[in-house]
Amino acid sequence: MEPLPARDLSLSARLAWFVVNLTLGILPTLLFFAWVEQDTDIPAVAHAFGWPWVELPMESVGEKLIWDAGLFALFAFLHSFFAQVGVQDRVRAVVPAPVVRSFYLAVSGSALFLMMGLWQHTGVKVWRLPLSAEAEAWAAGIVFAIPAVIVLWLVARLGFWDFLGWAQLFGPAAPVVRTAGTPALRTTGIYGHVRHPVYTGLLMMFLLGPTLSLDRLAVFAAALAYLSVGIPVEERKLIRLFGREYAVYRRRVPALLPTGRRVI
């Protein structure tokens, strides 16, 4: 099938896809980060959506962790599968090119929402600093916000509206393929310390805080495992894109931790 031409997408269709983008993609993703920041437990949200949708008869913490890891693996599979250029080409044969990014975000966001709705909490705390409730809330917010701001700044440098899919829906820009890489290789500034600073920031958001539940630690561990597989796959594409320049950069700069040695 040939890709559907962008001119066939009416304004009403663009607005409809914007609603899909927002409600199934961006809002569930923002909710996921808030859920992580709150140690995977936001009582008001859980009550509003009836989480968990299913309470499985699991007695051991290990069983719950295996189940939760499976939920994250489902998200990771969908997130990676629909990011593949070949898959996006097939999607583009079904929906117009300007909505491919919105479709991708909707799939990823829906998978995150499903994961949160089916998550089986362990009820285990790994650590908790001896702080008052008010001090703990302030500390948690600040520690979470610092890497979050860095991540947003980095995404903005790469093209914030393209990342959200809004430029493709409403602007003249050509559709952006999720895995095509950046137009220019960045090796200076923060990229001179780690090759994937966005991922480093996300991992910091998942792990750091005055309190840490086993559930939040499980999210961190699952994300780290996902990146340990995903980064080599992504970098093979970057080597095809930038050639020897990226291969030299990869040997010189660590992936995630600015240790002076290669990590992952």
From TrEMBL:
Name of the protein: Uncharacterized protein
Compartments, as annotated in UniProt: Endomembrane system
Membrane topology: Multi-pass membrane protein
Keyword Cell membrane carried by entry: no
Chief location: membrane
Transmembrane region(s): 15-36, 65-87, 99-118, 138-156
Pfam families membership: PEMT
Record keywords: Membrane, Transmembrane, Transmembrane helix
Listed GO CC annotations: endomembrane system
Coiled-coil blocks: none
Assigned protein family: Belongs to the nurim family.
